[in-house]
Amino acid sequence: EVDVPADHPRYQSLLTRHRIEAGVEKGITSTQGLIAEGRGEAFDYLLGEETTPSADRAARAAAAHFLLAAHPVISVNGNVAALVPEEVVELAEATGADIEVNLFGRTEERVRAIAEHLREHGAEEVKGLTADARIPGLSHERAKVDADGIYDADVVLVPLEDGDRAEALGEMGKTEIVIDLNPLSRSARVAAVPIVDNILRALPNVTRHARDLAGASDAELAEIVEAFDPAAALDDAERRLREGAVAEDE
Ligand code: PTJ
Fold first, then answer.
1. Which residues bind ATP (predicted)?
2. Residue 67: CB partners within 8 Å, gap ≥ 6?
3. Which CATH number is correct for 53-240, 3.90.226.10, 3.40.50.12640, 3.40.190.10, 3.30.1490.20?
């Protein structure tokens, strides 16, 4: 895929950067996406570049929400498409969720390029091109969604989302699952389930939990959802940031 020596101590991080760069070259990732990647990397470094027990519990709660939902949707932006296209398709398959391209810096061209990219990685249906509904409270381009997609969803996974949009979706009464390495970000703070973890690890982890919970009853799933405390998850992550990855929090 790229010319990074596998024994380089920062191999994973360099590979990730290359994927984002390739995304920009392919017209699927915005130049803003490069900045977002740098920010995410810094948080990941401070968190120890691993899935914490607390983030794993959040991933399990997210899987339970997905399985209980009437209409779950995975929102995909330019960074998500560049980093984890196959993992998005696998999660959709494991949970019956729709996939919808939804961009902060929306251009029709980029929506089409991302939809095509996801289909190249196995997606059957990709929503986001119809854009026949609006999220109330956001400016025109940023508000566009599909009427039979995000607009209709009861549970939405919004990874690496901008705070304004996360807030506006929450105000529509949707259950929001956010993947964001910054526990202080507004999107993480408004989420019913904030998963403070790198999307590279978090998405396959939610899929793994969804497969594991496939045979669970609605009562068992509801119990997992009820037991999850979003404020505690954010506190765990913040403590880990401040005290360092070695001072384990549980
Ligand atoms: O493709 P578009 O137009 O929809 O734009 C996408 C970006 C990500 C550029 C846009 O939504 C944006 O500007 O987001 P922000 O406000 O930079 O927020 C992105 C958040 O994701 C930040 O809190 C980062 O720390 C976090 N982040 C970045 N990379 C990762 C991440 N979280 C998890 N995994 C990552 N790999």
1. 17, 39, 180-182, 186-187, 198-199
2. 95, 210, 213, 214, 216, 221
3. 3.40.50.12640
